[in-house]
Design brief:
Low-confidence stretches: none
Radius of gyration: 21 Å
Order of helices and strands: EHEEHEEEEHHHEHHEEHEEEEHEHEEHH
Bound molecules: adenosine-5'-diphosphate, magnesium ion
Distance between the termini: 25 Å
Number of strands: 17
Mean pLDDT: 95
CATH class of the largest domain: Alpha Beta
CATH superfamily of the largest domain: ATP-grasp fold, B domain
CATH architecture of the largest domain: 2-Layer Sandwich
Helix content: 25-40%
CATH topology of the largest domain: D-amino Acid Aminotransferase, Chain A, domain 1
């Protein structure tokens, strides 16, 4: 049997470039080598695309960029190519056919529907959510509006454009304090990830500074009431009939789960299953499936909640391409629910083919 060609795309211009590389190394290690020929495409932080043919370890540590055999390569939008165009050192080009793409990119340009749009045009099946679900889940203002419409409980929120704040800061502060009368509040850029630009503001002064910080990341600013509760997450897998994992829980080692607590602080802990009652756990899973379908997610997503001591369940966000390292919540939750390593990867690939067939 001829092996299918799978492209794993990693890196990218987003602030989550490093995490993406470690996720990609794990995903590659779990793709069944007897069935697939793996083609690795790296995107540098400056946005250059290369076909990379070296070791997986060099993807994880970043040294892949210095590989002498790297050649410029890109997905062709034209369906007639159905793959990548590689530019050789002498300027000649060649085509490599792809059967499926596994984008292992987090954040901007990878998880937000942009790459998915290119893959739609190319007509190459790909793992994970489509254009609309990716874009909606990436933008926290859009997600909150969709949750509100779907009747899913979440933190009270308000939002404005950073340009509105620049031209009339008092008006935006007044709007925030009217909608969310109590400090602290959470300030977030609508489009970002890994807690970049997210702050907890305890006073009007801190609010102003937090807005300035968030405005560096995106043109829309979201402000939310502060929720005190456990951070509970579910891994979801599937297209129109999603499977939801047992919920897990993160216990940040900092005041909130900021970038450092997520990736650098070993004291941040994961609990699987989450330390909540069986009843709450079932409710969380049901809401995860409802939110996944309401946003049109496909393939996979990690759905993140707050669960308060009073038993209130509030949806925080959906990550359509969650961290996928060996110690990440998504693969761990799936493993705890009986779907282990390469089995998970095979399922994700088959879901990509299933969707592509249905869309024809
Ligand atoms: N409304 C909120 N109340 C309390 N904590 C919050 C709230 N929003 C975010 N946080 C904290 O900030 C972290 C990052 O926020 P989140 O919205 O998940 O952004 P990201 O996409 O960067 O993960 C969360 O994991 C949580 O610890
Ligand atoms: Mg989060």
């Amino acid at each position: 049997m001829q092996k299918k060609h799978i492209a794993v795309i990693f890196g990218g211009k987003s602030s989550e470039h490093e995490v993406s590389r470690v996720s990609a190394a794990y995903v590659i290690s779990q793709i069944p080598a007897d069935q697939y020929e793996i083609i690795t495409i790296g995107i540098t932080k400056t946005g250059r695309w290369f076909l990379y043919t070296g070791s997986t370890e060099s993807i994880a540590d970043g040294s892949w960029e210095k590989d002498e055999n790297n050649r410029t390569a890109f997905i062709a939008p034209a369906p007639s190519v159905h793959g990548i165009i590689v530019v050789n050192k002498d300027g000649s080009t060649e085509k490599i056919h792809l059967d499926v793409v596994f984008p292992v990119l987090h954040g901007k340009n990878g998880e937000d529907g942009t790459l998915q749009g290119l893959l739609e045009m190319s007509e190459i099946p790909y793992v994970g959510c489509g254009v609309l679900a990716s874009a909606e889940c990436m933008d926290k203002v859009s997600t909150n509006i969709m949750f509100e419409h779907a009747g899913i409980d979440q933190a009270a929120f308000t939002w404005f454009y950073s340009s509105e704040y620049q031209s009339d800061p008092e008006k935006c502060i007044a709007q925030t304090e009217a909608a969310l009368p109590q400090y602290p509040v959470f300030v977030k850029p609508a489009n970002a990830g890994s807690s970049v630009g997210v702050s907890k503001a305890h006073s009007r002064e801190e609010l102003a500074a937090a807005i300035e910080k968030a405005a560096k990341e995106d043109s829309r600013i979201l402000i939310e009431e502060n929720i005190v509760g456990k951070e509970v997450e579910c891994a979801v897998l599937g297209n129109k009939e999603p499977f939801v994992s047992v919920p897990g829980q993160i216990a940040p080692a900092a005041e909130f789960y900021d970038y450092d607590a997520k990736y650098n602080n070993a004291a941040s802990k994961l609990y699987i299953p989450a330390q909540i009652s069986e009843t709450l756990s079932e409710q969380v899973r049901a809401i995860a499936a409802k939110a996944y379908l309401a946003l049109g997610c496909e393939g996979l997503s990690r759905v993140d909640f707050f669960v308060t001591d009073e038993g209130r369940i509030l949806l925080n966000e959906i990550n359509t391409l969650p961290g996928f390292t060996s110690i990440s919540m998504y693969p761990k939750l799936m493993a705890a629910s009986g779907i282990e390593g390469s089995q998970l990867i095979e399922k994700l690939i088959s879901l990509a083919f299933e969707r592509a067939e249905k869309n024809v």
